[in-house]
């Protein structure tokens, strides 16, 4: 169990469709970090939007009824950028089961844990909350339920 002297992680949590991404875009425009954006209500294409530049890159897509096909290069580039940050505020949307399995943004999350100068806002699904609290350290986290 990790212990922190001060809160370093704010966890924005809600069930699927609970407004996490919308809240991140509304509260943190121009911040260093990323938010996911759907192409349509069906979510057939998910984009990763750089909050600082506004640039969207296709993160994953799927055919109707099929599984998502992940663009690993986009995750890799985003992780490289996030892992170069040494201090200040960082915002990351849609942390979920990918990361618990060591994929997706896990390298960036590992970096955030190890870099004391970083304050991170992470949006996570409610069903992942306990894993993130254990991984980041309960005393290091503030929970904001949407």
Number of domains: 1
Instruction: Please state the average pLDDT score.
Output: 93
Order of helices and strands: EHEEEEHEHHEHE
Question: How many beta-strand runs?
Answer: 8
| Structure class | alpha/beta
Fill in the CATH topology. Rossmann fold
Question: CATH superfamily name?
Answer: P-loop containing nucleotide triphosphate hydrolases
What overall form do the CA principal axes indicate? globular
Estimate the helix proportion, in percent: 25-40%
Provide the CATH top-level class.
Alpha Beta
Task: Determine the number of helices (DSSP H or I, runs of at least 4 residues).
Answer: 5
Strand order of the largest sheet: 5-4-3-2-6-7-1-8
- Under the CATH scheme, the architecture is 3-Layer(aba) Sandwich
- As a percent range, the share of strand residues is 25-35%
Radius of gyration: 15 Å
Sheet with most strands = 8 strands, mixed
Q: Which regions have little confidence, pLDDT < 50, spanning 5+ residues? A: none
How far the N terminus sits from the C terminus, by CA atoms, comes to 26 Å
Characterise this structure.
The chain is of the alpha/beta class and 146 residues long. The chain has a single domain, classed as 3-Layer(aba) Sandwich (Rossmann fold). The protein is built from 5 helices and 8 strands; from the N terminus they run E-H-E-E-E-E-H-E-H-H-E-H-E. It has helices spanning 20-27, 72-83, 97-100, 106-114, 129-136; strands at residues 9-14, 33-38, 45-50, 56-61, 69-70, 88-95, 118-125, 141-145. Strands 5-4-3-2-6-7-1-8 form an 8-stranded mixed β-sheet. A hairpin with a 7-residue loop joins strand 4 (56-61) and strand 5. The longest helix has 12 residues, at 72-83. It is globular and about 45 Å long. It starts with 8 loop residues before the first strand and ends with a strand. 26% of the residues are buried.
């Amino acid at each position: 169990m990790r212990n922190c002297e001060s809160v370093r992680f704010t966890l924005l949590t809600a069930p699927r469709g609970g407004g996490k991404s919308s809240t991140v875009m509304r509260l943190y425009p121009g911040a260093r970090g990323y938010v996911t954006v759907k192409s349509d209500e069906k979510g057939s294409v998910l984009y990763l939007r750089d909050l600082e530049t506004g640039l969207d890159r296709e993160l994953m897509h799927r055919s109707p009824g099929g599984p998502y096909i992940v663009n690993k290069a986009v995750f890799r580039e985003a992780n490289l950028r996030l892992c170069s940050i040494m201090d200040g505020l960082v915002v990351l949307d849609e942390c979920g089961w990918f990361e618990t399995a060591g994929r997706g943004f896990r390298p960036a999350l590992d970096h955030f844990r190890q870099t004391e100068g970083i304050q991170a806002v992470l949006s996570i699904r409610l069903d992942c909350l306990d894993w993130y609290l254990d991984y980041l350290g309960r005393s290091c986290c503030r929970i904001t339920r949407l």
